[in-house]
Amino acid sequence: MDINIAVRPQPRAVAHARWRSDSQVWGKVRRERWMYAFVLPGFVFFVVFRYLPLLGNIIAFEDYSPYLGFFDSPWVGFDNFAALFTSPAVGNALINTLIINGLQIIAYFPATIGLALLLNSLVNVAEAHGSVHRLLAVLHRLGGAGECLGIGSRR
What we know:
single chain, mainly alpha, 0% strand
């Protein structure tokens, strides 16, 4: 019993298949061009304002001079970090930072809760709310005055 099955070789169309898939991709891009046009401003925003500033982190590894720029400043590697962690002033600065942040939490949190309770307890809320809100907004925008009174917070 002799079974003779002839297998026909398939044509090699690798280059043609690749060209076809590329044309399908570009066809989809062409068909959805308005969607890409709407996405493009957000994409450009994130590239310009989120990713490009990350290139400035190279300063941490250089003896940076603004006159020489990023690429011409001498490379020092981890020497800046070694100087930071071996300096006796770092401990003092860390303790001061923790104390200041702790005092801000202790002072600002109850002040904002008290202000909210005070505004809520006003008898004629509709009239007073607008003027108090404007006053707080002005103090916040002035910055220093709001900080002195403990009302606003600077960012």
